[in-house]
Design goal:
The complex is a heterodimer.
Chain A lengths: L17 H32 L2 E3 L3 E3 L5 H8 L10 H32 L3 H16 L2 H12 L5 H7 L2 H8 L2 H6 L14 H25 L3 H9 L4 H12 L1 H16 L3 H6 L7 H9 L6 H30 L1
Chain B lengths: L4 H24 L17 H9 L1 H34 L3 H15 L2 H14 L6 H12 L1 H12 L3 H9 L4 H30 L2 H7 L6 H9 L5 H24 L2 H4 L8
Helix pairs in contact in B: 1-12, 2-3, 2-12, 3-4, 3-6, 3-7, 3-9, 3-11, 5-10, 6-10, 7-9, 8-9, 9-12
The chains are: A mainly alpha, B mainly alpha.
Chain lengths: ~325, ~270
């Protein structure tokens, strides 16, 4: 674990070969250090997922597939089949897919305009974007929690400007109740899928801009000007010149953000209805929360990891095929 | 280039939505009472004194956050430098493996890495210690200095290196006189990126700290269960201030559009 592994003893290396041998030594030292820090944690997750749970929160090493059976078939299999955890995985995929798509769709026009600004303007916007991007999920959830809260947020605002009354008078209010966005008397956004997806897209929108920025800023302005001089309307230019040339970065950004959102914990635990909680929440509960079952938490982590890996792999294959 | 009206309106609207939750949190810090209301009631600045001075919980948490953020980003730069340098010198198999390993924790859902680190530190003596927290964040965020330093190394003019070589400079001298000075802005940028993200990180630190210490984000999450208090909003303001300062410094001393991958030929 110590850093001294990265600094091999030079005195033992014969004079002529010193630089090359030293470089190899440093490389091997780094490899060992990074293997411990970056790879071993995942090996622990994999090993423990096959471990045995002991009553009372402990576990021991072993090789059993109980936890995987529980995930895919339910704890009571073979008497009855339960798809509770498959549903959780489904909600993980569903929320992450919508969240990343919305973020990328809104980030695309923004990034396009951003790259048309002067260098100074771009720098200022980038500082704002990076500050927002690095802001902890905990704060963002806190902000949206206030904005969506019944007492001082959006519901109170809608009530105040008479929108709630208008909807009731028109008889449309029942529709909002049906989709779970209103209580009998007023609008209610916590907890709802709407709030979850809203907060998720907000969370990754700055990432989406940063990811699309290189591609759009390398777009040759001569191409756009040529299309404009030939009489194409701005909308036409976007759809025939800009969009096709950034098709792959758009797809790549959506995929990366999707994988990132698969692991969101705070947003889902605060904004989603308990019946719609995702795998990340369930992992948290198993490892540190209410249910305390480390092997099951590990098994769910492995499944989440494999899911993320599969999507990244499929994405890479698709974009390679599309790039040809 | 002049922006069309639609462009300006769209950018302004996006910026407003981006700032909305941040502004609301910031304004809530002024609340005189214990509850988070917006607009703030009975405005006061005493929450700032509570956060920075009078409440030991928040002061300790802030101290831990600062130690972990600075320590892990410095360590992350130390990990990233040789990796980026090897990759730039000669992209051999071993160098690629090293760089790939550094990038791995950043590329997977962080909750999985956090769970794994929690297990690993529980098996050593690291669980719940600050140094394990520092090492964990260094491994998680070393990918950022790796990227910025690689961009920096690529921007070095090969002619300078050739000139140094023809004048008989050894590798060490070239490194000290050409490579290091030209990459310092990129190194510092990488350091800031890692620092700001470490400062704000939640889920990995949650599993690694194992409730034996708290950083500010952990403390906020713990307090969430008892409802919001305006003191938490002060923490948010502090964090935004740190981020904006760090990235403004990067923009001031480095080339932010280039770091983010903009094309240099057209600015």
């Amino acid at each position: 674990m110590s850093l001294s592994a990265a600094a091999p003893d030079l005195s033992q290396v014969p004079e002529p070969d010193r630089p090359r041998e030293a470089a190899l030594g440093v490389k091997l030292g780094m490899l060992a250090l990074l293997a411990v820090l970056c790879l071993v944690p995942f090996l622990f997750v994999l090993t423990i997922s096959f471990g045995h749970k002991i009553e009372g929160g402990g576990w021991s090493f072993g090789f059993e597939t109980t936890q995987y059976k529980r995930f895919f078939l339910g704890a009571t299999w073979p008497e009855t089949f339960q798809d509770l955890y498959l549903q959780k995985l489904g909600y993980s995929l569903w929320f992450a897919a919508i969240g990343s798509l919305v973020a990328v769709m809104l980030a695309f026009p923004f990034t396009y305009y951003l790259t048309r600004l002067g260098k100074r303007g771009q720098t200022v916007w980038l500082v704002v974007l990076l500050s927002s991007l690095s802001l902890s999920e905990v704060f963002i959830v806190m902000g949206w929690d206030i904005l969506l809260s019944a007492r001082s947020g959006l519901p109170a605002l809608l009530d105040g400007i008479g929108f709630t009354g208008l909807m009731k008078d028109l008889g449309w209010f029942q529709w909002f109740r049906d989709i779970g966005l209103a209580s009998p008397r007023a609008f209610k956004f916590k907890t709802s899928g709407f709030a979850t997806v809203l907060c998720m897209s907000y969370l990754v929108w700055p990432y989406a801009v940063i990811l699309l920025y290189p591609a759009l800023s390398r777009l040759d302005p001569a191409l756009i000007e040529a299309a404009r001089t030939m009489g194409a309307r701005p909308r036409k230019v976007i759809s025939t010149v800009v969009l096709p040339s950034v098709r792959l970065p758009l797809f790549g950004a959506a995929l990366l953000l999707f994988v990132f959102l698969l692991g969101t914990y705070v947003t889902v635990s605060v904004f989603a209805d308990p019946s719609q909680h995702t795998l990340a929440v369930s992992i948290y509960d198993s490892v540190r929360g209410s249910t305390l079952n480390a092997p099951f938490g590990a098994a769910q982590s492995v499944i989440l990891l494999i899911t993320a890996g599969l999507f990244l792999f499929a994405g890479q294959t698709l974009s390679k095929a599309g790039g040809k | 280039m002049r922006l069309s009206w639609t462009g300006r309106i769209f950018m302004t609207l996006s910026g407003l939505v981006l700032l909305l939750p941040i502004l609301v949190v910031a304004a809530s810090a002024l609340n005189g009472g214990r509850t988070m209301l917006f607009p703030p009631q009975d405005p006061t600045l005493s929450r700032f004194t509570e956060f920075f001075v009078s409440e030991p919980i928040w002061r300790t948490a802030l101290g831990n956050s600062v130690i972990i953020a600075l320590g892990s980003s410095a360590l992350g730069v130390l990990f990233a430098w040789p990796a980026a340098y090897f990759l730039w010198k000669k992209a051999s198999g071993l160098s690629k493996v090293i760089a790939g390993m550094l990038a791995l924790p950043f590329a997977v859902p962080p909750i999985v890495f956090g769970v794994g680190l929690g297990f690993m530190w529980a098996f050593s003596i690291g669980l719940g210690t600050l140094w394990a927290g520092i090492l964990s964040h260094a491994a998680l965020f070393a990918a950022l200095p790796l990227v910025t330093i690689s961009i920096g190394l690529q921007s070095i003019d090969r002619a300078h290196l050739d000139a140094a070589a023809t004048m008989g400079a050894t590798e060490a001298v070239t490194f000290r006189t050409i490579i290091l000075p030209q990459t310092i802005p990129y190194t510092i940028s990488g350091f800031f990126f890692a620092m700001v993200l470490s400062f704000n990180e939640f889920i990995v630190m949650f599993f690694v700290s194992s409730s034996s210490y708290a950083t500010v984000t952990l403390q906020i999450f713990n307090s969430l269960r008892n409802g919001f208090t305006p003191t938490m909003a002060v923490a948010a303001i502090t964090f935004i201030a740190v981020s904006v300062t760090a990235f403004s410094l990067v923009a001031r001393f480095g080339d932010l559009p280039r770091l983010m991958g903009a094309d240099q030929s057209r600015t």
